[in-house]
Amino acid sequence: MPILHALRAAGTMTWQVTWSLILGFTLAAVIESLVRKSTMARLLPDDRPRSLAKATGLGAASSSCSYAAVALARSLFRKGADFTAAMAFQFASTNLVIELGLILALLLGWQFTLAEFVGGPIMIILLALLFRRFLTSRLRQDARTQADRGVAGSMEGHAAMDMSVTGSGSFWRRLASPAGFTSVSHNFVMEWAAILRDLVGGLLIAGAAAAWIPDSFWQQLFFTDHPLAAKLWGPLIGPLVAVVTFVCSIGNAPLAAVLWNGGISFGGVVSFIFADLIIIPLLLIYAKYYGRRMAVFLFVTFYVTMVAAGYVIEFVFSPLGLIPSGPRNADVGDDSIRWNYTTVLNIVFLLLAIALVWRFYRTGGRAMLAMMGGGPDDMAGHDHSGRHARAGR
User: Fold this and answer.
1) Is 136 left (phi over 0), alpha (psi -120 to 50) or beta?
2) Sign of CA dihedral 253, 258, 263, 264
3) How far apart are CA 95 and CA 132, in angstroms?
4) Residues 145, 151, 153, 154, CA torsion sign
5) C-alpha–C-alpha distance, residues 385 and 179, integer Å
6) How remote is the C-alpha of 176 from its chain's centroid?
7) Of 118, 47, 42, the residue nearest 88 (C-alpha)
8) In 10 A of CB 68, how many CB atoms?
9) What is the pTM of this model?
């Protein structure tokens, strides 16, 4: 049956990437447990290269689903961060994260992971240049006025939570303490809770696309019979496919594998992956956060930078021999589950995930889940770092 075929493909892809997702979210949870969100805004006062570099680093360390990243960027902007720096943070928080790199390497190959970490900074640099040239003071001020109204979008409660461990001591001492274990478990589970909808949606869409859409459709859409046209068309159409699929964050990586097998160019895959921040639900949230004019401005500038980054990657990687050649065999759920290194790693990391989830629920995690979708100001006065310290005693 076609439905069973699609579900089987989605399930197999899930099995292939499970350990890498757990590893990625665990590493991100460790970093977030040691970096306080309250310090970020003061580190991003302007759009100078130093501030943008800090925004990129902090964003990559603050792994988030796209909705939480957008909400946190608005929170930083309201607290005094420069708008361009906040947008750079937002880009890095969804496109320069460990778990995305791991899943791309497993499904598509290491070249795509390299393209992610090379193309992400390129995109941020291009965005900063466009903002300097076209973002007017009036538009920026209108955006701040709208942001200060605190209109609810999505995931503000999650974005506002600061679950880092405070106090003296070295990195390892704080991490190995009971409070550190609690903080890691809270960050780990909350990130999974935030991303789960998009991840499941992405896997189901990718499974359905792999099972139901014939290769001939993709080949015609991506002009595979015309190599030069395909290279020029791929980065233009990639983000538009992302817009209409509604899948964001790492949830679009499985579909990227389907598109690659279907014939989209290497640069087109890169642009598609980066386009998680211009899906239709997020465009509507931008309008709530910053006003309609700014939402349109963000869509146009984001799209231009995503396309441009795709072109740069395509035409730089090609002469360097970094674009995979030969048959396209990205893992889209065609292989059956069997006993191999993937199974062993999944068992090991699933045991780790169980331990973290157990700690999460034993230390007040259920109440935190209930606050994930709260408004932007609902978390005021909640000191999670203090709660961790008490829970770790």
Assistant:
1) beta
2) negative
3) 22
4) positive
5) 9
6) 28
7) 47
8) 27
9) 0.81
Question: CA 70, CA 249: separation in Å to the nearest integer?
Answer: 11
Q: Tell me the one-letter amino acid at 362.
A: R
> Could you tell me if 309 and 126 are in contact, meaning their C-beta atoms sit under 8 angstroms apart?
yes
Say which residues have a Cβ less than 8 Å from residue 220's Cβ, sequence separation at least 6: none
CB atoms within 10 A of CB 29: 22
Burial of 172 (0-12, 13-18, 19+ CB in 10 A): exposed
d(CA 174, CA 167): 8
The H or E element containing residue 357 is helix 341-362
**Length of the chain as a residue count:** 393
Q: How far is CA 301 from CA 75, 132, 290, 306, 368, in A?
A: 21, 11, 15, 9, 35
Fill in the amino acid letter for 120.
Answer: G
Structure tokens at 334: 């065609």
Rounded distance between C-alpha atoms, residue 177 and residue 83, angstroms: 37
pLDDT string in tens for the chain (393-residue length): 667 766 776 777 788 778 888 887 887 788 777 666 666 777 888 999 999 999 999 888 776 677 778 888 898 898 889 999 999 999 998 888 888 888 899 889 999 999 999 999 999 999 999 999 999 999 999 999 999 988 876 666 656 666 666 665 666 677 778 888 888 898 888 877 777 777 787 778 777 777 788 878 988 999 998 999 999 999 999 999 988 876 666 778 888 888 998 999 999 999 999 998 998 888 999 999 999 999 999 999 999 999 999 999 999 999 999 999 878 877 665 556 677 778 899 999 999 999 999 999 998 888 777 776 555 555 544 444 444 444 444
Say how far residue 74 (Cα) sits from the centre of its chain. 16
